[in-house]
Amino acid sequence: MITTEAWAIKRQDVEFPSKKITLVEFSFSEITDEEILVEPLFGCWEGNMEHAVNRSPIDLCVQRNEDQVVIGNAGVVRILQVGNSIKDVYEGDVGILFCNGVPDEYGYPKLIFGYDAPNTIGVLSKKTKLKRNQFIPISSNSQAPLPQWAAFSLRYITAWANWRVAFNSWRLQNQDVDPGSAYAVAWGGGVSLAELELAKNQGFKTIMITSMPERIALLAKKGIKSIDRSTFSKENYEQDLISSVMAHTDGKGANIFIDNIGSSFQSTLKVLARQGVITTSGWRSNMIFPLIRSSECINRHTHIFTHYAHYQEGLNAVEYAIQNDWFPVVPEKIYGWEEIPQLLEDYSKGELKNYFPIFAVN
Ligand SMILES: NC(=O)c1ccc[n+]([C@@H]2O[C@H](COP(=O)([O-])OP(=O)(O)OC[C@H]3O[C@@H](n4cnc5c(N)ncnc54)[C@H](OP(=O)(O)O)[C@@H]3O)[C@@H](O)[C@H]2O)c1
């Protein structure tokens, strides 16, 4: 057995209070021939980790039928030991966690490692074990620091896979349209930002809706226009959203709208141009998405839903990032191992200005 330390969530009816994360010592079995033992170096705090601690929309302990769950599905790890059947990665190799926990027969994830895949141990542990295809080596020609790769591993790969489907779907109905004349608009966090960077690289005019001045400054540096949603009035939120998106898009609306939030789905559909694509991989504020089907048909709107990525999409995203310098900007402040509860609190309060909160594990 391997004994290590981790931050865990526990069944609410066991010994810990709910909505807390607690430092525990625990043991897991030695690796099989098909597994690798790793030590996480850096992790990135993700929306799903807050969902998990809040036991919403699901309680992972109940869903996985486990008394204790260690979450964490974004990070950089170093290999400590390799199973006998694995011949292409070695002790000491550093790479990103690829968190496809249980793939379907075509390779797309049904369950996520360090989240809802049973018996997986996330990167909030000093040691964990992976299957070979849950590890993507970082090649020696990468100049990016490891915290950037930690931030990349979930949000950027999700973005790559979601944008691939969204863009190609848009192209299907807009074969002769120059992306330079089209608008990609988003709100949300790091996944949306990463998609807008891809959109920009393909020539789209890009706009991000945000509520923070620090993010407006970052977006300007990246050449992405912004709309400040903190100026929207509570009483006329939808009207303010619609008029500002229309004003920024020459009255045409968004050709592709990236909505991982879902809080105002009717509003995002109202700002979608004809033959437009609304695309999502997240459900931060709302899971239900009712539609007026006739309007959606008449407007020829395409709706895209994706969930993380196929392993080949992960490899392609990594390759593209190295060749095109497509990386997240990470904060100077890196939370230490003991500061994980503080990180959870800061993230939950919405106080973090950066899109990619990083923590150190080993
Ligand atoms: N399916 C997958 O594979 C997958 C992968 C990654 C993430 N996700 C999910 O996708 C969602 C977004 O994740 P993320 O990592 O990009 O972002 P995130 O870290 O969850 O950040 C969310 C940001 O969205 C903005 N926001 C919050 N509430 C809003 C509202 N009501 N209206 C408009 N904007 C709002 C805020 O930014 P401003 O204050 O700047 O506006 C906030 O910082 C989460 O639910 C996450 O779990 C899914």
Characterize the structure shown.
This protein is α/β, with parallel strands linked by helices. It folds into 2 domains: 2-137 and 331-360, Quinone Oxidoreductase, Chain A, domain 1 (Alpha-Beta Complex); 155-305, NAD(P)-binding Rossmann-like Domain (Rossmann fold, 3-Layer(aba) Sandwich). It is 30% helix and 25% strand. The strands form 4 sheets. Strands 3, 5, 6, 9, 10 and 17 form a 6-stranded antiparallel beta sheet that branches. β11, α4 (190-201) and β12 (205-210) form a beta-alpha-beta unit. It is globular. It starts with a strand and ends with a strand. The mean pLDDT is 95. It binds NADP nicotinamide-adenine-dinucleotide phosphate. NADP nicotinamide-adenine-dinucleotide phosphate binds at residues 46-48, 154-155, 158, 187-192, 210-212, 215, 229, 260-261, 263, 281-285, 307-308.
Quick take:
This protein folds into 2 domains: 166 residues, Quinone Oxidoreductase, Chain A, domain 1; 151 residues, 3-Layer(aba) Sandwich (Rossmann fold). 30% of the residues lie in helices and 25% in strands. The longest helix is centred in the middle third of the chain and has 28 residues.
**Helix content class:** 25-40%
Q: What's the CATH architecture name of the largest domain?
A: Alpha-Beta Complex
Per CATH, the superfamily of the largest domain is Medium-chain alcohol dehydrogenases, catalytic domain
- Ligands (ions, cofactors included): NADP nicotinamide-adenine-dinucleotide phosphate
Number of helical segments with 4 or more residues? 10
Briefly note the structural class of the backbone: alpha/beta
Strand content: 25-35%
Task: Please give the largest β-sheet.
Answer: 6 strands, antiparallel
Number of domains: 2
